[in-house]
């Protein structure tokens, strides 16, 4: 294998450089698709961590080379220590693509917001006292586009600020808010030089932020449309507290739920399988392995928080897990249980093609526990 191919499909540089790593992953996916579709070859994957741990078994040496790695991977495959590759197709491929797009856009969105916040902290740190969430309210967004620096706020005055705010909102923000902004601008501790450049920078970033917010709305519309094309979307959306975007992202990460034999397989895919580190009399607690799809855990966590607040059954289970007499769970531990329960509901409703029924969420044993509590 020449060096050019080596850099494309692996190597130390590919693991440390994000740009190269993304390209490597794309090329691997294209190569795997070619082998399966064009050449009829079964493609499997070996966990890189297994390769790292197994490379010393034969020669008891930390030596690493392409030749040695290839032999180690071949032995692992021969012993059956691999997992089959799943590349989603049809509508689930669309959902996965839209999911990764939304995740990357949210990261860029947050990076722009952090940059604007850094400039405000330097020139106008008091702005967040007037507008608690400057990137969510229309009035705050309008101020950031027009006069984000104290010098320009004072030049406008109360009437000017009020006029700018009313271009974005009609009733919710009035003269009192405008006066608070003027008072904050007068008492600011921010620097008073380079103000024109700072305003220009914020205005450019605000244009970028508005564009990304519009693009996010378009992506979410596409996700909703793709979810409607699945056979199971309507059944899963009947679950109280499950939203269109969160469900679309969950299915984008999972793929087709019908390919699983058990909900525990879905939990393992998310890295929710429990592990412990005990020896002799030293007994450790259990924790989740986190060896699974990170983005799937993230979206399940968000779904769990929402359902604990809006779904009566999940709220009851969450409170029981935290307050039971024997082995009460901490907040995060209880949310993991809720997340696994969400996966179970997704698996069951997808298999049976049934709508959500609150009376069938829990089995007899769990119902007796909740009733006793």
Secondary-structure blueprint:
Blueprint: H1 3-9, H2 12-16, H3 18-37, E1 44-45, H4 48-54, H5 66-78, E2 83-84, H6 90-123, H7 127-130, H8 138-146, H9 150-165, H10 175-186, H11 195-228, H12 233-236, H13 244-254, H14 263-269, E3 274-275, E4 287-288, H15 294-310, H16 312-323, H17 331-352, H18 364-372
Helix pairs in contact: 6-11, 6-13, 8-9, 8-11, 9-10, 11-13, 13-15, 14-17, 15-16, 15-17, 16-17
What does it look like?
This protein has 373 residues and is mainly α. It folds into three domains: 42-87, no CATH class; 101-210, no CATH class; 230-275 and 289-372, no CATH class. It is 65% helix and 2% strand. It has 18 helices and four strands. The chain has helices spanning 3-9, 12-16, 18-37, 48-54, 66-78, 90-123, 127-130, 138-146, 150-165, 175-186, 195-228, 233-236, 244-254, 263-269, 294-310, 312-323, 331-352, 364-372, and strands at residues 44-45, 83-84, 274-275, 287-288. It has a two-stranded antiparallel ribbon with strand order 1-2. A two-stranded antiparallel ribbon has the order 3-4. Helix 6 runs antiparallel to helix 11 (195-228), helix 8 crosses helix 9 (150-165) and helix 16 packs antiparallel against helix 17 (331-352). The chain is globular, with a radius of gyration of 27 Å. The model is unreliable at 1-14 (pLDDT under 50).
Count structural domains.
3
**Quick one: how many beta strands?**
4
Poorly predicted ranges: 1-14
Oligomer: single chain
Helix content: 55-70%
Instruction: Report the C-alpha radius of gyration, rounded.
Output: 27 Å
Annotation field: number of helices: 18
Spatial ordering of strands, largest sheet = 1-2
Beta percentage is under 5%
The assigned structural class equals: mainly alpha
Could you tell me how far the N terminus lies from the C terminus, measured between alpha carbons in angstroms? Answer: 64 Å
Largest sheet: 2 strands, antiparallel
Give the integer mean of the pLDDT values: 88
Shape: globular
Instruction: Write the element-wise H/E pattern from the N-terminal end onward.
Output: HHHEHHEHHHHHHHHHEEHHHH
């Amino acid at each position: 294998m020449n060096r050019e191919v080596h850099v494309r499909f692996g190597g130390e540089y590919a693991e440390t450089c994000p740009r190269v790593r993304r390209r490597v992953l794309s090329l691997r996916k294209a190569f795997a698709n070619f082998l399966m579709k064009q050449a009829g070859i079964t493609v499997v994957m070996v966990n890189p961590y297994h390769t790292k741990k197994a490379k010393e078994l034969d020669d008891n040496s930390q030596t690493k080379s392409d030749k040695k790695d290839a032999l180690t991977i071949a032995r692992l495959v021969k012993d059956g220590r691999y997992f089959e590759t799943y590349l989603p197709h049809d509508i689930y491929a669309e959902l996965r693509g839209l999911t990764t797009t939304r995740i990357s856009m949210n990261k860029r969105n947050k990076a722009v917001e952090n940059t604007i916040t850094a400039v405000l902290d330097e020139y106008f740190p008091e702005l967040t006292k007037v507008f608690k969430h400057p990137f969510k309210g229309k009035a705050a967004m309008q101020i950031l586009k027009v006069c984000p620096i104290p010098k320009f706020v004072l030049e406008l005055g109360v009437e000017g600020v009020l006029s700018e705010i009313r271009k974005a909102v009609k009733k919710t923000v009035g003269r009192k808010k405008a006066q608070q902004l003027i008072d904050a601008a007068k008492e600011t501790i921010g620097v008073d030089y380079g103000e024109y450049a700072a305003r220009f920078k914020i205005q450019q970033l605000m244009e970028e932020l508005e564009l990304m917010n519009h693009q996010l709305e378009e992506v979410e519309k596409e996700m909703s449309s793709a979810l409607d094309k699945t056979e199971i979307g309507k059944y899963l959306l009947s679950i109280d507290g499950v939203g269109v975007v969160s469900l679309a992202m969950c299915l984008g990460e999972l793929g087709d739920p019908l390919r699983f034999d058990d909900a525990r397989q879905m939990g393992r895919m998310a890295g929710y399988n429990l592990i412990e580190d005990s020896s002799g009399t030293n007994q450790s607690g259990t924790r989740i392995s986190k060896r699974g799809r990170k983005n799937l855990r993230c979206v399940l966590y968000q779904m769990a928080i929402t359902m604990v607040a809006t779904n009566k059954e999940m709220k009851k289970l969450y409170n029981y897990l935290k307050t039971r007499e024997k082995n009460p769970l901490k907040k995060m531990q209880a949310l993991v249980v809720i997340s696994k329960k969400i996966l179970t509901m997704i698996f069951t409703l997808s298999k049976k093609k049934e709508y959500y029924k609150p009376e069938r969420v829990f089995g007899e044993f769990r119902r007796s526990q909740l009733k006793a509590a």
